[in-house]
Amino acid sequence: NPILSPNPANVWESLVTTNPGAWYDEEKKQVLLLYRAAGKDVAHTVHLGLAVSKDGYHFRRVSRKPVFSPSKDGFDAGCIEDPRIVKMGDYYYITYACRASAPGQYWLPMEKNKHRGEPCPPDYPHSLRSNWTSSGLALTKDFKSFRRAGRLTNPMFDDRDVILFPEKIDGRYVMIHRPMQWVGKKYGTERAAMWISYSDDMLNFRESKLLAKNKYDWECQKIGGSTPPLKTKHGWLLLYHGVGPDWYYRVGAMLLDLKDPSRILGRTPDWIMQPEETYETKGLYNGVVFPCGNVVIDGTLFVYYGGADQYVGVATCSVDALVKHLRKCPA
Q: Quick one: which of 151, 175, 119, 161 has its CA closest to 249?
């Protein structure tokens, strides 16, 4: 680690390579890593690059250009980032966070961030003026050409960490997400939390339910889903992130019921991974381990994560050992 670092040879990834989605191709016996990338431009336009590996550790970039970039003038014209990948049928379904305008150098103090997106008239809706993050859906068969299916979340909310389940449950598509504005007495949570939503057509998730809110000290600020759920015989294995009082991003795990994923069977009371190495503690955003992808190879769980908003790392453990641990944890 880190297994991917910024590449000065390519302008579009010269500052950032982080927060990767992942998929294991059983036929080719290789891991595909779709990673967030950005250069040193003041707008901080974010693209997605692609790397592949035969062993899950050593990756080769497949192109000197991004494989997926912001649209020219759409809802995702500013940036596309933090992809999560599932596959249903012949297509890979990629959920990603996006903005209509580029975020600028968000790690700098506001007065030093020279780019804050296109200026908006004062009578514009607050959600447009704030350049809130929404989440989009892209489809591909080969990671060479992509089809934008549209926005998955309501543009009136800052809603990210969107993850699809890899199959229908009880005839419906299921999504986990984290709407920042769904807080307060009406929503049953005082901090941004994880919600689970259902849809008949994948684009209109109208039925929503609070899945999990912050419960332990290490996640007291907010929590959100991290990696696509993995199906095991004991339940859906889901990694999630929590932000603590020190504003460090740490990782925990949940086990969800196979037939009713809104029901938590077990949840780690303490974090299972935290920022410790230099590439995790010092970067654009200090103190971050942020997984977006996980795959299983011969019983080993490979977790691909962003370090300090600038690097890509991998962590491994036994799938069976983690599930066994979760079955002993309280819900």
A: 161
Give the burial class of 252: count Cβ atoms within 10 A of its Cβ; 0-12 exposed, 13-18 middle, 19 or more buried. buried
Cα angle, residue 266 at apex, residues 220 and 241 outer, rounded to 5°: 35
SS3 track for the chain: CCCECCCCCCHHHCCEEEEEEEEEECCCCEEEEEEEEECCCCCCCEEEEEEEECCCCCCEECCCCCCECCCCCCCCCCEEEEEEEEEECCEEEEEEEEECCCCCCCCCCHHHCCCCCCCCCCCCCHHHHCCCCEEEEEEECCCCCCEEEEECCCCCCCEEEEEECCCCECCEEEEEEEECCCCECCCCECCCCEEEEEECCCCCCCEEEEEECCCCHHHCCEEEECCCCEEECCEEEEEEEEECCCCCEEEEEEEECCCCCCCEEEECCCCCECCCCHHHHCCCCCCEEEEEEEEEECCEEEEEEEECCCEEEEEEEEHHHHHHHHHCCCC
Distance in angstroms (rounded) separating the CA atoms of residues 289 and 303: 11
* Low pLDDT (below 50) residues in the chain: none
Amino acid at 288: V
250-267: pLDDT as tens digits: 999 999 999 999 999 999
The whole-number pLDDT of residue 235 equals 98
| Alpha carbons 5 and 50: distance in angstroms, whole number | 13
Look at residues 265, 243, 245, 244 and name the one whose alpha carbon lies nearest to residue 254: 265
Residue 127 has what pLDDT? 56
Whole-angstrom distance, CA of residue 93 vs CA of residue 167: 11
Cβ atoms of 104 and 42 within 8 Å: the answer is yes
Total Cβ atoms within 10 A of residue 280: 26
- The number of beta carbons lying within 10 Å of the beta carbon of residue 133 is 22
For residue 129, the model assigns a pLDDT of 58
pLDDT score of 112:
80
